[in-house]
User: Which sequence fits this backbone?
Protein backbone atom coordinates (compact mmCIF):
# COMPACT_ATOMS: atom_id res chain seq x y z
CA UNK A 1 0.00 0.00 0.00
CA UNK A 2 0.86 3.68 -0.02
CA UNK A 3 2.29 3.62 3.51
CA UNK A 4 4.56 0.71 2.64
CA UNK A 5 5.79 2.58 -0.43
CA UNK A 6 6.49 5.64 1.70
CA UNK A 7 8.44 3.56 4.23
CA UNK A 8 10.48 2.07 1.39
CA UNK A 9 11.21 5.50 -0.08
CA UNK A 10 12.28 6.96 3.27
CA UNK A 11 14.16 3.78 4.14
CA UNK A 12 16.29 3.97 1.00
CA UNK A 13 17.28 7.58 1.77
CA UNK A 14 18.01 6.58 5.37
CA UNK A 15 20.17 3.58 4.45
CA UNK A 16 22.07 5.49 1.78
CA UNK A 17 22.91 8.32 4.16
CA UNK A 18 23.85 5.74 6.80
CA UNK A 19 26.59 4.50 4.48
CA UNK A 20 27.63 7.74 2.76
CA UNK A 21 27.28 10.46 5.38
CA UNK A 22 26.58 8.96 8.79
CA UNK A 23 27.41 11.33 11.64
CA UNK A 24 27.13 10.34 15.27
CA UNK A 25 23.45 11.35 15.52
CA UNK A 26 22.46 9.20 12.55
CA UNK A 27 24.55 6.29 13.85
CA UNK A 28 22.60 6.46 17.12
CA UNK A 29 19.36 6.27 15.12
CA UNK A 30 20.71 3.28 13.18
CA UNK A 31 21.51 1.41 16.39
CA UNK A 32 18.01 2.05 17.68
CA UNK A 33 16.14 1.35 14.45
CA UNK A 34 18.00 -1.69 13.04
CA UNK A 35 16.33 -4.25 15.33
CA UNK A 36 12.96 -2.47 15.14
CA UNK A 37 12.97 -2.49 11.33
CA UNK A 38 14.01 -6.14 11.22
CA UNK A 39 11.17 -7.03 13.57
CA UNK A 40 8.75 -4.95 11.48
CA UNK A 41 9.56 -6.76 8.23
CA UNK A 42 9.36 -10.13 9.98
CA UNK A 43 5.92 -9.14 11.26
CA UNK A 44 4.81 -8.21 7.74
CA UNK A 45 5.76 -11.65 6.43
CA UNK A 46 4.01 -13.24 9.42
CA UNK A 47 0.73 -11.34 8.91
CA UNK A 48 -2.02 -13.94 9.54
CA UNK A 49 -3.49 -15.27 6.32
CA UNK A 50 -1.02 -13.49 4.03
CA UNK A 51 1.31 -16.43 3.39
CA UNK A 52 -1.57 -18.79 2.62
CA UNK A 53 -2.75 -16.40 -0.10
CA UNK A 54 0.73 -16.13 -1.59
CA UNK A 55 1.05 -19.91 -1.47
CA UNK A 56 -2.30 -20.35 -3.20
CA UNK A 57 -1.21 -18.09 -6.07
CA UNK A 58 2.15 -19.87 -6.33
CA UNK A 59 0.54 -23.32 -6.42
CA UNK A 60 -2.00 -22.09 -8.96
CA UNK A 61 0.83 -21.08 -11.27
CA UNK A 62 2.78 -24.30 -10.64
CA UNK A 63 -0.25 -26.46 -11.40
CA UNK A 64 -1.13 -24.27 -14.42
CA UNK A 65 -4.53 -23.59 -12.88
CA UNK A 66 -3.82 -19.84 -12.89
CA UNK A 67 -3.39 -18.80 -16.52
CA UNK A 68 -2.85 -15.60 -18.45
CA UNK A 69 0.27 -14.46 -16.59
CA UNK A 70 3.32 -13.20 -18.46
CA UNK A 71 6.70 -14.84 -17.95
CA UNK A 72 7.76 -11.93 -15.75
CA UNK A 73 4.61 -12.22 -13.62
CA UNK A 74 5.24 -15.93 -13.10
CA UNK A 75 8.81 -15.13 -12.07
CA UNK A 76 7.48 -12.47 -9.69
CA UNK A 77 5.15 -14.99 -8.04
CA UNK A 78 8.03 -17.45 -7.68
CA UNK A 79 10.34 -14.84 -6.12
CA UNK A 80 7.72 -13.46 -3.71
CA UNK A 81 6.83 -16.99 -2.60
CA UNK A 82 10.49 -17.80 -1.99
CA UNK A 83 10.90 -14.57 0.00
CA UNK A 84 8.04 -15.58 2.28
CA UNK A 85 9.54 -19.04 2.76
CA UNK A 86 12.99 -17.68 3.58
CA UNK A 87 11.41 -15.18 5.98
CA UNK A 88 9.81 -18.09 7.85
CA UNK A 89 6.21 -17.22 7.01
CA UNK A 90 5.34 -20.93 6.76
CA UNK A 91 6.52 -21.69 10.31
CA UNK A 92 4.19 -22.24 13.25
CA UNK A 93 3.75 -19.37 15.70
CA UNK A 94 6.48 -20.41 18.14
CA UNK A 95 9.04 -21.02 15.38
CA UNK A 96 8.12 -17.71 13.74
CA UNK A 97 8.83 -15.91 17.00
CA UNK A 98 12.24 -17.60 17.21
CA UNK A 99 13.00 -16.65 13.62
CA UNK A 100 11.99 -13.04 14.23
CA UNK A 101 14.22 -12.90 17.30
CA UNK A 102 17.15 -14.25 15.25
CA UNK A 103 16.82 -11.74 12.40
CA UNK A 104 16.28 -8.90 14.89
CA UNK A 105 19.45 -9.76 16.79
CA UNK A 106 21.34 -10.14 13.53
CA UNK A 107 20.27 -6.69 12.36
CA UNK A 108 21.50 -5.16 15.62
CA UNK A 109 24.84 -6.99 15.51
CA UNK A 110 25.51 -6.24 11.84
CA UNK A 111 24.87 -2.54 12.44
CA UNK A 112 27.25 -2.60 15.41
CA UNK A 113 29.89 -4.42 13.36
CA UNK A 114 29.70 -1.85 10.56
CA UNK A 115 29.85 1.10 12.94
CA UNK A 116 32.84 -0.37 14.76
CA UNK A 117 34.80 -0.58 11.51
CA UNK A 118 33.74 2.94 10.59
CA UNK A 119 34.84 4.19 14.03
CA UNK A 120 38.28 2.57 13.71
CA UNK A 121 38.72 4.10 10.27
CA UNK A 122 37.57 7.51 11.47
CA UNK A 123 39.67 7.63 14.64
CA UNK A 124 43.00 6.20 13.49
CA UNK A 125 45.59 8.46 11.92
CA UNK A 126 49.28 8.00 11.23
CA UNK A 127 50.79 11.49 11.43
CA UNK A 128 53.75 11.90 9.08
CA UNK A 129 56.68 14.18 9.86
CA UNK A 130 58.51 15.19 6.67
CA UNK A 131 61.48 16.43 8.74
CA UNK A 132 61.91 12.90 10.11
CA UNK A 133 61.78 11.36 6.63
CA UNK A 134 58.27 9.94 7.09
CA UNK A 135 57.21 10.96 3.58
CA UNK A 136 60.21 9.50 1.72
CA UNK A 137 59.15 7.91 -1.56
CA UNK A 138 55.59 9.26 -1.49
CA UNK A 139 54.30 10.95 -4.65
CA UNK A 140 53.14 14.55 -4.36
CA UNK A 141 49.53 13.56 -5.06
CA UNK A 142 49.47 11.32 -1.99
CA UNK A 143 51.12 13.98 0.17
CA UNK A 144 48.51 16.50 -1.00
CA UNK A 145 45.74 14.05 -0.11
CA UNK A 146 47.37 13.50 3.30
CA UNK A 147 47.31 17.26 3.94
CA UNK A 148 43.63 17.34 2.99
CA UNK A 149 42.84 14.44 5.32
CA UNK A 150 44.68 16.21 8.15
CA UNK A 151 42.72 19.41 7.59
CA UNK A 152 39.43 17.50 7.56
CA UNK A 153 40.41 16.03 10.96
CA UNK A 154 41.28 19.38 12.48
CA UNK A 155 45.05 19.13 12.03
CA UNK A 156 45.86 21.84 9.46
CA UNK A 157 49.45 21.92 8.25
CA UNK A 158 50.09 18.26 9.02
CA UNK A 159 50.06 15.12 6.86
CA UNK A 160 48.13 12.06 7.97
CA UNK A 161 47.44 8.60 6.63
CA UNK A 162 43.98 7.23 7.37
CA UNK A 163 42.78 3.64 7.12
CA UNK A 164 41.00 4.23 3.82
CA UNK A 165 42.25 1.79 1.18
CA UNK A 166 42.92 4.77 -1.12
CA UNK A 167 45.54 5.96 1.40
CA UNK A 168 46.89 2.65 2.68
CA UNK A 169 47.63 0.88 -0.60
CA UNK A 170 49.57 3.81 -2.15
CA UNK A 171 51.52 4.24 1.09
CA UNK A 172 52.43 0.53 1.16
CA UNK A 173 53.42 0.84 -2.49
CA UNK A 174 55.62 3.93 -2.41
CA UNK A 175 56.88 4.53 1.13
CA UNK A 176 60.53 3.65 1.61
CA UNK A 177 60.04 3.63 5.39
CA UNK A 178 59.59 -0.07 6.13
CA UNK A 179 58.82 0.62 9.80
CA UNK A 180 55.95 2.94 8.89
CA UNK A 181 54.67 0.54 6.23
CA UNK A 182 54.46 -2.15 8.89
CA UNK A 183 52.81 0.19 11.40
CA UNK A 184 50.10 1.29 8.97
CA UNK A 185 49.61 -2.24 7.63
CA UNK A 186 49.12 -3.64 11.13
CA UNK A 187 46.52 -0.98 11.94
CA UNK A 188 44.79 -1.53 8.59
CA UNK A 189 44.56 -5.30 9.02
CA UNK A 190 43.38 -4.86 12.62
CA UNK A 191 40.34 -2.74 11.88
CA UNK A 192 37.49 -3.93 14.05
CA UNK A 193 39.99 -4.75 16.82
CA UNK A 194 41.75 -1.42 17.41
CA UNK A 195 39.78 -0.60 20.54
CA UNK A 196 38.97 -3.04 23.37
CA UNK A 197 35.56 -1.38 23.50
CA UNK A 198 34.84 -2.51 19.93
CA UNK A 199 35.43 -6.26 19.68
CA UNK A 200 34.22 -7.26 16.23
CA UNK A 201 35.43 -10.84 16.56
CA UNK A 202 33.03 -11.36 19.46
CA UNK A 203 30.26 -9.86 17.32
CA UNK A 204 31.24 -12.04 14.32
CA UNK A 205 31.02 -15.17 16.49
CA UNK A 206 27.53 -14.21 17.65
CA UNK A 207 26.49 -13.56 14.05
CA UNK A 208 27.77 -16.98 12.98
CA UNK A 209 25.85 -18.67 15.81
CA UNK A 210 22.63 -16.87 14.94
CA UNK A 211 23.02 -17.64 11.22
CA UNK A 212 23.54 -21.31 12.01
CA UNK A 213 20.35 -21.29 14.09
CA UNK A 214 18.54 -19.57 11.22
CA UNK A 215 19.74 -22.20 8.74
CA UNK A 216 18.73 -25.09 11.02
CA UNK A 217 15.21 -23.68 11.43
CA UNK A 218 14.94 -23.71 7.63
CA UNK A 219 16.10 -27.32 7.45
CA UNK A 220 19.67 -26.77 6.24
CA UNK A 221 22.79 -28.27 7.80
CA UNK A 222 24.62 -24.95 7.93
CA UNK A 223 24.35 -21.36 6.78
CA UNK A 224 26.49 -21.93 3.67
CA UNK A 225 23.84 -24.36 2.40
CA UNK A 226 21.06 -21.88 3.22
CA UNK A 227 22.87 -19.00 1.48
CA UNK A 228 23.80 -20.86 -1.72
CA UNK A 229 20.39 -22.52 -2.17
CA UNK A 230 19.08 -19.47 -4.04
CA UNK A 231 22.11 -18.89 -6.30
CA UNK A 232 23.39 -20.04 -9.67
CA UNK A 233 25.99 -22.17 -7.84
CA UNK A 234 23.29 -23.96 -5.84
CA UNK A 235 25.53 -25.68 -3.27
CA UNK A 236 28.63 -24.93 -1.15
CA UNK A 237 30.41 -27.76 -2.97
CA UNK A 238 29.94 -26.08 -6.35
CA UNK A 239 31.36 -22.90 -4.82
CA UNK A 240 34.41 -24.67 -3.44
CA UNK A 241 34.97 -26.56 -6.68
CA UNK A 242 35.29 -23.24 -8.54
CA UNK A 243 37.48 -21.62 -5.87
CA UNK A 244 39.82 -24.60 -5.67
CA UNK A 245 40.02 -24.74 -9.46
CA UNK A 246 41.94 -21.45 -9.34
CA UNK A 247 43.57 -21.84 -5.90
CA UNK A 248 46.43 -24.19 -6.75
CA UNK A 249 47.57 -22.46 -9.96
CA UNK A 250 47.20 -19.07 -8.22
CA UNK A 251 49.48 -20.23 -5.39
CA UNK A 252 52.13 -21.29 -7.87
CA UNK A 253 51.86 -17.97 -9.68
CA UNK A 254 52.16 -16.06 -6.38
CA UNK A 255 55.21 -18.10 -5.39
CA UNK A 256 56.93 -17.15 -8.66
CA UNK A 257 56.04 -13.52 -8.02
CA UNK A 258 57.45 -13.66 -4.50
CA UNK A 259 60.71 -15.15 -5.77
CA UNK A 260 61.00 -12.23 -8.20
CA UNK A 261 60.34 -9.69 -5.44
CA UNK A 262 62.81 -11.29 -3.06
CA UNK A 263 65.48 -11.04 -5.72
CA UNK A 264 65.09 -7.25 -5.55
CA UNK A 265 64.88 -7.25 -1.75
CA UNK A 266 68.09 -9.29 -1.42
CA UNK A 267 69.92 -6.91 -3.71
CA UNK A 268 68.99 -4.17 -1.23
CA UNK A 269 69.98 -6.35 1.75
CA UNK A 270 66.35 -6.20 2.89
CA UNK A 271 64.64 -8.92 4.98
CA UNK A 272 62.43 -11.56 3.39
CA UNK A 273 59.16 -10.30 1.94
CA UNK A 274 56.42 -9.64 4.50
CA UNK A 275 52.84 -8.53 3.75
CA UNK A 276 53.75 -4.85 4.28
CA UNK A 277 56.56 -5.25 1.72
CA UNK A 278 54.76 -6.99 -1.14
CA UNK A 279 53.20 -3.97 -2.85
CA UNK A 280 56.40 -1.94 -2.40
CA UNK A 281 58.62 -4.48 -4.14
CA UNK A 282 55.96 -5.32 -6.74
CA UNK A 283 56.06 -1.66 -7.75
CA UNK A 284 59.88 -1.78 -7.89
CA UNK A 285 59.71 -4.94 -10.01
CA UNK A 286 57.32 -3.26 -12.44
CA UNK A 287 59.53 -0.19 -12.60
CA UNK A 288 62.70 -2.20 -13.24
CA UNK A 289 61.31 -4.85 -15.58
CA UNK A 290 58.55 -3.01 -17.41
CA UNK A 291 60.01 0.48 -17.08
CA UNK A 292 56.73 1.80 -15.70
CA UNK A 293 55.48 2.76 -12.26
CA UNK A 294 52.31 4.14 -10.75
CA UNK A 295 53.69 7.67 -10.64
CA UNK A 296 54.22 7.52 -14.43
CA UNK A 297 50.69 6.26 -15.03
CA UNK A 298 48.48 8.29 -12.68
CA UNK A 299 48.79 11.64 -14.52
CA UNK A 300 47.00 9.97 -17.45
CA UNK A 301 44.11 8.83 -15.25
CA UNK A 302 42.57 11.88 -13.67
CA UNK A 303 39.18 11.29 -12.09
CA UNK A 304 37.51 13.78 -14.42
CA UNK A 305 38.96 12.08 -17.51
CA UNK A 306 37.95 8.62 -16.32
CA UNK A 307 34.41 9.78 -15.56
CA UNK A 308 34.26 11.13 -19.12
CA UNK A 309 35.48 7.71 -20.32
CA UNK A 310 32.73 5.95 -18.35
CA UNK A 311 30.04 8.10 -19.86
CA UNK A 312 31.49 7.86 -23.37
CA UNK A 313 31.53 4.04 -23.23
CA UNK A 314 27.95 3.97 -21.95
CA UNK A 315 26.91 6.28 -24.78
CA UNK A 316 28.64 4.23 -27.47
CA UNK A 317 27.30 0.94 -26.16
CA UNK A 318 23.79 1.88 -25.10
CA UNK A 319 23.08 5.35 -26.53
CA UNK A 320 22.60 7.08 -23.17
CA UNK A 321 23.85 10.58 -22.27
CA UNK A 322 24.85 11.86 -18.83
CA UNK A 323 23.84 15.51 -18.34
CA UNK A 324 25.34 17.24 -15.29
CA UNK A 325 22.83 19.07 -13.08
CA UNK A 326 24.92 21.39 -10.86
CA UNK A 327 21.86 23.04 -9.26
CA UNK A 328 20.39 19.86 -7.77
CA UNK A 329 20.55 19.83 -3.96
CA UNK A 330 22.65 17.02 -2.49
CA UNK A 331 23.72 15.83 0.97
CA UNK A 332 27.42 16.74 0.49
CA UNK A 333 29.25 19.17 -1.83
CA UNK A 334 31.37 16.33 -3.27
CA UNK A 335 28.31 14.67 -4.82
CA UNK A 336 27.59 15.30 -8.51
CA UNK A 337 24.16 14.65 -10.03
CA UNK A 338 23.37 13.74 -13.64
CA UNK A 339 20.23 13.28 -15.65
CA UNK A 340 20.48 10.11 -17.74
CA UNK A 341 18.85 10.63 -21.13
CA UNK A 342 18.48 8.80 -24.44
CA UNK A 343 16.98 9.51 -27.84
CA UNK A 344 14.17 7.07 -28.64
CA UNK A 345 13.61 5.46 -32.04
CA UNK A 346 11.04 8.15 -32.89
CA UNK A 347 13.48 10.96 -32.03
CA UNK A 348 12.19 11.82 -28.55
CA UNK A 349 14.77 13.00 -25.97
CA UNK A 350 13.73 10.93 -22.96
CA UNK A 351 14.78 10.98 -19.30
CA UNK A 352 15.49 7.41 -18.12
CA UNK A 353 17.16 7.97 -14.74
CA UNK A 354 19.05 10.12 -12.26
CA UNK A 355 22.65 9.26 -11.31
CA UNK A 356 24.58 10.47 -8.25
CA UNK A 357 28.39 10.20 -8.12
CA UNK A 358 29.99 10.39 -4.63
CA UNK A 359 33.66 9.68 -5.24
CA UNK A 360 35.79 10.85 -2.31
CA UNK A 361 36.79 9.37 1.04
CA UNK A 362 35.77 11.35 4.11
CA UNK A 363 34.92 11.00 7.76
CA UNK A 364 31.59 9.31 8.51
CA UNK A 365 31.59 7.49 5.17
CA UNK A 366 31.75 3.71 4.95
CA UNK A 367 34.95 2.40 3.36
CA UNK A 368 35.02 0.60 0.02
CA UNK A 369 32.97 1.19 -3.11
CA UNK A 370 29.35 0.37 -3.81
CA UNK A 371 26.24 1.08 -5.87
CA UNK A 372 22.86 1.69 -4.32
CA UNK A 373 19.41 3.04 -5.17
CA UNK A 374 17.30 5.90 -3.92
CA UNK A 375 14.51 4.76 -6.27
CA UNK A 376 14.27 1.39 -8.01
CA UNK A 377 13.03 1.11 -11.59
CA UNK A 378 9.45 -0.11 -11.97
CA UNK A 379 6.45 0.35 -14.27
CA UNK A 380 4.03 -0.35 -11.44
CA UNK A 381 3.25 3.24 -10.47
CA UNK A 382 0.42 5.74 -10.68
CA UNK A 383 0.06 6.73 -14.33
CA UNK A 384 -0.37 10.41 -13.49
CA UNK A 385 3.02 10.62 -11.74
CA UNK A 386 5.47 12.84 -13.70
CA UNK A 387 8.40 11.08 -15.36
CA UNK A 388 10.91 12.65 -12.94
CA UNK A 389 9.11 10.85 -10.08
CA UNK A 390 9.14 7.47 -11.82
CA UNK A 391 12.67 6.98 -13.16
CA UNK A 392 15.32 5.14 -11.13
CA UNK A 393 17.69 7.16 -8.94
CA UNK A 394 21.04 5.40 -8.69
CA UNK A 395 24.18 6.25 -6.71
CA UNK A 396 27.81 5.15 -6.97
CA UNK A 397 30.05 5.59 -3.93
CA UNK A 398 33.84 5.42 -4.11
CA UNK A 399 36.56 6.33 -1.61
CA UNK A 400 39.27 8.01 -3.66
CA UNK A 401 41.78 10.26 -1.90
CA UNK A 402 40.74 13.80 -2.81
CA UNK A 403 43.43 16.11 -4.21
CA UNK A 404 44.06 19.54 -2.71
CA UNK A 405 41.82 22.39 -3.85
CA UNK A 406 42.59 23.40 -7.43
CA UNK A 407 44.42 20.17 -8.29
CA UNK A 408 43.00 17.21 -10.21
CA UNK A 409 42.43 13.94 -8.38
CA UNK A 410 44.63 11.27 -9.96
CA UNK A 411 43.69 7.59 -9.99
CA UNK A 412 45.78 4.48 -10.15
CA UNK A 413 44.75 2.05 -12.86
CA UNK A 414 43.21 -0.11 -10.11
CA UNK A 415 41.18 2.89 -8.92
CA UNK A 416 39.98 3.44 -12.48
CA UNK A 417 38.87 -0.21 -12.66
CA UNK A 418 36.86 0.33 -9.46
CA UNK A 419 35.24 3.40 -11.04
CA UNK A 420 34.21 1.35 -14.08
CA UNK A 421 33.08 -1.57 -11.91
CA UNK A 422 30.67 0.49 -9.83
CA UNK A 423 29.31 2.26 -12.90
CA UNK A 424 28.59 -1.18 -14.37
CA UNK A 425 26.36 -1.78 -11.34
CA UNK A 426 24.90 1.68 -11.91
CA UNK A 427 24.00 0.82 -15.50
CA UNK A 428 22.30 -2.35 -14.27
CA UNK A 429 19.99 -0.12 -12.22
CA UNK A 430 19.59 2.69 -14.76
CA UNK A 431 18.89 0.48 -17.81
CA UNK A 432 16.47 -1.82 -15.99
CA UNK A 433 13.22 -2.14 -17.97
CA UNK A 434 10.85 -4.49 -16.15
CA UNK A 435 7.36 -4.22 -14.77
CA UNK A 436 7.90 -4.84 -11.08
CA UNK A 437 10.32 -3.44 -8.53
CA UNK A 438 10.78 -6.87 -6.92
CA UNK A 439 12.59 -8.20 -10.01
CA UNK A 440 14.17 -4.92 -11.12
CA UNK A 441 17.77 -3.84 -11.63
CA UNK A 442 20.29 -5.50 -9.33
CA UNK A 443 17.66 -7.58 -7.50
CA UNK A 444 19.13 -10.69 -9.11
CA UNK A 445 20.73 -13.88 -7.84
CA UNK A 446 23.80 -12.97 -5.82
CA UNK A 447 26.30 -14.70 -8.12
CA UNK A 448 24.79 -12.96 -11.18
CA UNK A 449 24.84 -9.43 -9.76
CA UNK A 450 28.56 -8.90 -10.39
CA UNK A 451 28.35 -9.76 -14.10
CA UNK A 452 27.24 -6.28 -15.33
CA UNK A 453 29.83 -4.55 -13.12
CA UNK A 454 32.80 -6.76 -13.88
CA UNK A 455 31.95 -6.89 -17.57
CA UNK A 456 31.97 -3.09 -17.83
CA UNK A 457 35.52 -3.04 -16.39
CA UNK A 458 36.80 -4.49 -19.67
CA UNK A 459 36.13 -1.29 -21.60
CA UNK A 460 38.74 0.59 -19.57
CA UNK A 461 41.42 -1.49 -21.29
CA UNK A 462 40.09 -0.98 -24.83
CA UNK A 463 42.88 0.83 -26.77
CA UNK A 464 40.60 3.37 -28.45
CA UNK A 465 39.09 4.31 -25.06
CA UNK A 466 42.52 4.84 -23.54
CA UNK A 467 43.80 6.79 -26.54
CA UNK A 468 40.81 9.11 -26.33
CA UNK A 469 40.55 9.60 -22.57
CA UNK A 470 43.84 8.65 -20.90
CA UNK A 471 45.51 12.01 -21.47
CA UNK A 472 48.22 13.62 -19.38
CA UNK A 473 46.61 15.94 -16.90
CA UNK A 474 49.05 18.79 -17.70
CA UNK A 475 50.03 18.35 -21.36
CA UNK A 476 46.82 16.62 -22.59
CA UNK A 477 49.03 14.26 -24.58
CA UNK A 478 47.37 10.84 -24.99
CA UNK A 479 49.00 7.90 -23.30
CA UNK A 480 51.59 6.50 -25.70
CA UNK A 481 51.36 3.02 -27.16
CA UNK A 482 54.73 2.31 -25.56
CA UNK A 483 53.57 3.30 -22.06
CA UNK A 484 50.27 1.50 -22.61
CA UNK A 485 52.10 -1.67 -23.59
CA UNK A 486 54.31 -1.42 -20.52
CA UNK A 487 51.27 -0.79 -18.33
CA UNK A 488 49.43 -3.85 -19.61
CA UNK A 489 52.51 -6.03 -19.18
CA UNK A 490 52.98 -4.68 -15.67
CA UNK A 491 49.34 -5.28 -14.79
CA UNK A 492 49.65 -8.93 -15.74
CA UNK A 493 52.35 -9.21 -13.10
CA UNK A 494 51.00 -9.78 -9.57
CA UNK A 495 47.87 -11.59 -10.74
CA UNK A 496 48.86 -14.47 -8.47
CA UNK A 497 48.94 -12.17 -5.44
CA UNK A 498 45.56 -10.64 -6.30
CA UNK A 499 43.93 -14.03 -6.91
CA UNK A 500 45.36 -15.53 -3.72
CA UNK A 501 44.26 -12.71 -1.40
CA UNK A 502 40.74 -12.79 -2.87
CA UNK A 503 40.30 -16.58 -3.18
CA UNK A 504 41.61 -17.25 0.33
CA UNK A 505 39.06 -14.75 1.67
CA UNK A 506 36.26 -16.53 -0.21
CA UNK A 507 37.38 -19.95 1.05
CA UNK A 508 37.55 -18.73 4.66
CA UNK A 509 34.07 -17.22 4.21
CA UNK A 510 32.71 -20.63 3.17
CA UNK A 511 34.47 -22.39 6.04
CA UNK A 512 33.18 -19.92 8.65
CA UNK A 513 29.62 -20.43 7.46
CA UNK A 514 29.94 -24.22 7.52
CA UNK A 515 30.83 -24.20 11.23
CA UNK A 516 28.58 -26.25 13.48
CA UNK A 517 28.20 -26.43 17.27
CA UNK A 518 30.17 -29.24 18.88
CA UNK A 519 27.29 -30.01 21.23
CA UNK A 520 23.82 -29.51 19.83
CA UNK A 521 22.31 -30.25 23.23
CA UNK A 522 23.49 -26.94 24.69
CA UNK A 523 21.09 -24.15 23.77
CA UNK A 524 21.23 -20.55 24.95
CA UNK A 525 17.83 -18.95 25.76
CA UNK A 526 16.14 -21.58 23.59
CA UNK A 527 17.52 -19.92 20.47
CA UNK A 528 21.18 -20.45 19.57
CA UNK A 529 23.70 -23.22 20.17
CA UNK A 530 27.18 -21.86 20.93
CA UNK A 531 29.88 -22.55 18.35
CA UNK A 532 33.19 -23.22 20.02
CA UNK A 533 35.52 -21.22 17.80
CA UNK A 534 38.33 -18.73 18.26
CA UNK A 535 38.03 -16.88 14.95
CA UNK A 536 41.65 -15.69 14.94
CA UNK A 537 42.88 -19.25 15.47
CA UNK A 538 40.36 -20.55 12.92
CA UNK A 539 41.72 -18.08 10.36
CA UNK A 540 45.30 -19.13 11.14
CA UNK A 541 44.59 -22.87 10.90
CA UNK A 542 42.50 -22.44 7.77
CA UNK A 543 45.30 -20.62 5.98
CA UNK A 544 47.79 -23.26 7.10
CA UNK A 545 45.59 -25.99 5.61
CA UNK A 546 45.37 -24.04 2.39
CA UNK A 547 49.17 -23.53 2.48
CA UNK A 548 48.74 -19.78 2.12
CA UNK A 549 51.78 -18.34 0.35
CA UNK A 550 54.11 -16.45 2.67
CA UNK A 551 53.84 -12.68 2.39
CA UNK A 552 50.11 -12.60 1.57
CA UNK A 553 47.15 -12.27 3.92
CA UNK A 554 43.39 -12.28 3.43
CA UNK A 555 42.10 -9.31 1.48
CA UNK A 556 39.56 -8.89 4.29
CA UNK A 557 40.30 -10.33 7.72
CA UNK A 558 37.26 -11.42 9.77
CA UNK A 559 37.17 -8.45 12.19
CA UNK A 560 36.55 -6.00 9.32
CA UNK A 561 35.07 -8.32 6.68
CA UNK A 562 32.02 -6.14 6.08
CA UNK A 563 30.84 -8.20 3.12
CA UNK A 564 30.16 -10.98 5.63
CA UNK A 565 29.26 -9.29 8.89
CA UNK A 566 27.84 -5.82 8.11
CA UNK A 567 25.21 -7.36 5.85
CA UNK A 568 23.93 -10.82 5.03
CA UNK A 569 24.11 -10.18 1.28
CA UNK A 570 27.61 -11.60 0.77
CA UNK A 571 27.67 -14.02 3.72
CA UNK A 572 28.83 -17.40 2.36
CA UNK A 573 28.77 -15.56 -0.98
CA UNK A 574 32.05 -13.68 -1.31
CA UNK A 575 32.80 -16.22 -4.04
CA UNK A 576 30.36 -14.42 -6.35
CA UNK A 577 33.04 -12.16 -7.83
CA UNK A 578 34.89 -15.19 -9.20
CA UNK A 579 31.66 -16.84 -10.38
CA UNK A 580 30.76 -13.66 -12.23
CA UNK A 581 34.31 -13.43 -13.60
CA UNK A 582 33.68 -16.67 -15.49
CA UNK A 583 30.64 -14.97 -17.03
CA UNK A 584 32.21 -11.56 -17.68
CA UNK A 585 35.35 -12.90 -19.38
CA UNK A 586 33.24 -15.11 -21.64
CA UNK A 587 30.75 -12.29 -22.30
CA UNK A 588 33.41 -9.77 -23.33
CA UNK A 589 34.72 -12.32 -25.81
CA UNK A 590 31.43 -11.81 -27.69
CA UNK A 591 32.70 -8.33 -28.63
CA UNK A 592 36.24 -9.58 -29.28
CA UNK A 593 34.86 -12.16 -31.71
CA UNK A 594 33.09 -9.40 -33.65
CA UNK A 595 36.32 -7.42 -34.00
CA UNK A 596 34.52 -4.36 -32.61
CA UNK A 597 34.41 -3.49 -28.90
CA UNK A 598 31.30 -1.37 -29.54
CA UNK A 599 29.52 -3.68 -31.99
CA UNK A 600 25.94 -2.44 -31.95
CA UNK A 601 24.18 -5.79 -32.44
CA UNK A 602 26.15 -7.35 -29.59
CA UNK A 603 25.58 -4.27 -27.40
CA UNK A 604 21.83 -4.46 -28.09
CA UNK A 605 21.75 -8.15 -27.07
CA UNK A 606 23.72 -7.23 -23.96
CA UNK A 607 21.27 -4.51 -22.98
CA UNK A 608 18.18 -6.52 -23.88
CA UNK A 609 19.22 -9.68 -22.02
CA UNK A 610 21.57 -8.65 -19.21
CA UNK A 611 21.42 -4.97 -18.24
CA UNK A 612 17.66 -4.42 -18.69
CA UNK A 613 16.04 -7.67 -17.54
CA UNK A 614 16.81 -7.67 -13.81
CA UNK A 615 15.54 -10.89 -12.24
CA UNK A 616 12.51 -11.13 -14.55
CA UNK A 617 13.83 -14.43 -15.96
CA UNK A 618 16.21 -17.18 -14.93
CA UNK A 619 19.74 -15.74 -15.31
CA UNK A 620 20.98 -18.90 -17.04
CA UNK A 621 18.42 -18.39 -19.79
CA UNK A 622 19.25 -14.68 -20.07
CA UNK A 623 22.93 -15.45 -20.48
CA UNK A 624 22.27 -18.15 -23.08
CA UNK A 625 20.10 -15.73 -25.03
CA UNK A 626 22.90 -13.15 -25.04
CA UNK A 627 25.78 -15.53 -25.77
CA UNK A 628 24.01 -18.37 -27.59
CA UNK A 629 25.43 -20.91 -25.12
CA UNK A 630 26.54 -21.38 -21.51
CA UNK A 631 29.67 -19.58 -20.33
CA UNK A 632 33.06 -21.24 -20.66
CA UNK A 633 35.57 -21.06 -17.78
CA UNK A 634 38.63 -20.89 -20.05
CA UNK A 635 38.49 -17.13 -20.81
CA UNK A 636 38.58 -16.37 -17.05
CA UNK A 637 41.53 -18.68 -16.47
CA UNK A 638 43.36 -17.15 -19.44
CA UNK A 639 42.65 -13.63 -18.17
CA UNK A 640 44.27 -14.55 -14.85
CA UNK A 641 47.20 -16.29 -16.52
CA UNK A 642 46.21 -19.59 -14.88
CA UNK A 643 45.90 -21.86 -17.93
Assistant:
Amino acid sequence: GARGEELGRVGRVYSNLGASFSGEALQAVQREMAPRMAAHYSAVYATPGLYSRVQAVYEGVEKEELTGLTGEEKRLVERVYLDFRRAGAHFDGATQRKHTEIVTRLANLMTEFQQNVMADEAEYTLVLDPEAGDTEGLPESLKDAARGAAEERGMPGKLVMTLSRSFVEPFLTFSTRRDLREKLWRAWTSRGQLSPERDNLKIAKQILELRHAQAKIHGFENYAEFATFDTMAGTPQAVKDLLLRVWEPAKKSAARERDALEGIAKAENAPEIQPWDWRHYAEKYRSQNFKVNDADVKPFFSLDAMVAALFDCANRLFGIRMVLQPDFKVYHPDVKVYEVRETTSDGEDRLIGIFLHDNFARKFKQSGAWMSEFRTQTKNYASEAPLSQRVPIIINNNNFAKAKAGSPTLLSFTDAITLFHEFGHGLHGLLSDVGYQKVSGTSVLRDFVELPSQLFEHWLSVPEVLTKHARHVETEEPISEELLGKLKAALNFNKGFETVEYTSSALVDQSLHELKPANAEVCVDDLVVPIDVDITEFEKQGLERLQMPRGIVLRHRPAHFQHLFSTSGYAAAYYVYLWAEVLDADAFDAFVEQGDFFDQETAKRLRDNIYSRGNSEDPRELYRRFRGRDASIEPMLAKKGLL
About this structure: The two ends are 54 Å apart (CA to CA). The chain has a mean pLDDT of 94. Strands lie at 126-128, 159-161, 320-324, 336-343, 349-360, 370-375, 393-400.
